[in-house]
Every structure is written in C-alpha cells, then in structure tokens.
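Final report, Chapter 2: Outcomes

The project's central promise was a pipeline that accepts a single protein chain and returns its three-dimensional structure in a standardized token representation, suitable for archiving and comparison. That pipeline is now operational. To close this chapter, we reproduce one record exactly as it appears in the project archive, with the input sequence first and the structure output second.
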Amino acid sequence: MRILFWGTPAFAVPSLRALDDEGFEIVGVVTQPDRPAGRGRRLRPSPVKEVALDAGFEILTPDLPRTDDFVDRIRALKPDISVVVAYGHILKPFVLDVPRLGSINVHASLLPELRGAAPINWAIARGHEKTGITIMRMAEGMDAGAIIHQVEEPILPDETAGDLTLRLSEVGAAALVEALALMSVGQAVEVEQDHERATFAPKIDRETAHIDWARPARRIANLVRAMDPAPGAWSPLDGSTLKLFRPSIWSETELADAPFHLPATNGGSPVRAEGAKPGTVVAADSSIGVLVRAGDGAVAFAEVQPQGKKRMRAADWINGRGVEVGAELG
C-alpha cells in the first residue's frame, strides 16, 4: 500500500516510524514548513521532517496544502491512501480525495467526544477518566468522518498532558497499523459517528490556562495537569506571572485539620487557612510545596516557574523567599 503521510509534531513520529517498520511504502511526507524556534529564533524543522530526512523520504512543506501546483505534486506520487496525524491544517475535500482509497486520520480521543485541536488537554481538564485513539475516515466537517477503529485508554490520576500525549502517540501508531491491516484485506467496518453526542476540544490559548481560584480544587488540579508542559497553567503574582505544576488536592476537611494560620493584619487575629479567600497562599513549606486556597479545599504545587526563570521545585523557590504565606494569586 502506497502511503502519503501528513504530520508535524512529535505526536506523529511513532505513526510514521510504525508504517516504515511494517513495510508500508511511504511515497511522501507532508509537514509544516520550518519555523523559528529558541532564543535565537533560528529556523527549525518539525519533528516529522527530521525523521523523514533521516529515512530519505520525499518531503513536501507547503505553506498552504491546496494550491494547484501542490495537488499536482501529490497526485504524481500516486498514493493509495493519505494518513494524517496532527498535520496542522484542515484539508480540503479535493485534497483528501487524491488517493484512490481516500484519507484517514489518527485522532487522540474516542470520537465523537472531543473533536478539535486539543483533545488530550481537554480530556484531562474536564476530568475524564478515559480517552483513547480513533482511526477515522476523513471527510468534510471537523473530525466528523466514519470511525474505522478505536482503542480505549485510561487517564491516570496524576497524568499530565505531556505524559498522555506520549502514551497515546504510541497507542495511535499501533492502532493505525491495525486499521490499515484490516483495510488491506477488506475487513474494515466504517461506522458513522453519532453527531448528537459530539463534544469539542478547541485550541488551547493563554487565557485557557489562566487559573480561576474560585473553582473547586479538583477542577484547578485538572487544569494544571492539562496545561503541563505547555502553555503552563498560570496566575498573576505581584505584577508578574507564575506558572504552577504538579498539583495535589487538599480537601476541605484536610485543610481545616491542618495547623495553618495566615499572618494577622491591622492588629487582628490570625486567620485559619480554611477562612482564607481563594487564591491565597495558606502554606509555603519545602515538604508541602505552595498550598493555595481554592473555591473548596486547596491545591498544593510541587513545581513552579516564576516569570523569566526556568521551571523549578517549589521547595527551592520557597527557600529562596519566592513567596510568603498570605500572598494572593490573581
């Protein structure tokens, strides 16, 4: 089977390698153009392009994958099928239809749940206990094509988006090979999605990662895990931005039982931790980390990243007098 592979980030690399290892003929690799990266803003190839270069595959890097010249180029490769894994552009129907068997996609959710650009992040942020991989037929409409194959995976309690992305990239590679094997012998059954059950996972932006301390502790912890490693859940502190990582939840009971008090102000009595307003640092200890009051309970953070600095252990930040009990996060 002659495959035209489309992909850009590291998530797509295991799928490309699996196809090569299984002996599929990869007639070309379409990926995003080189982008500026790092402090020097030097052009850097995508992870998929780096692998394709090492393997000697023909590489195409169009700015827009729909011009006449580009379509002529991929048609000349005579692919049997296009395999799309996190490529980064919505492909037009006339592009999807170039291969004789059409185009299929590796999507990191159990469709019809979590259609869109960031299914892994939103699965964690919304507190899902499971997710998975869907191999689907690509058609007009975002992630709305028929399902060819699905693999379910649990979301582990402390798993971050980075952890889950790495795991699902390998699951997706195996699922893709299985789906193509079924297709090659005519045993693949394509099932239309129940569109009424569809949910959506829009692109993550900076505001998505802004922590609302009035929310319950579990929702805050889920958001922090969902934004790790990028863009990083954040909160204002003293006119700068603080990113927070590796959360653990304190229940309302645990907080009430802990011997934490906030410093007295204006000659008043010290305030117990459970009486603090959301966003208040109620403990800053090398063994606990930074403990912040939430809408209910609190969330402790084991790692932080102050603005302009590298990610570090919360204990090191605390020991360097980076934060004091009673500080308020916005």
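Archive annotation: The mean pLDDT is 95.
This record, like all others produced under the grant, will remain available to the consortium after the project formally closes.
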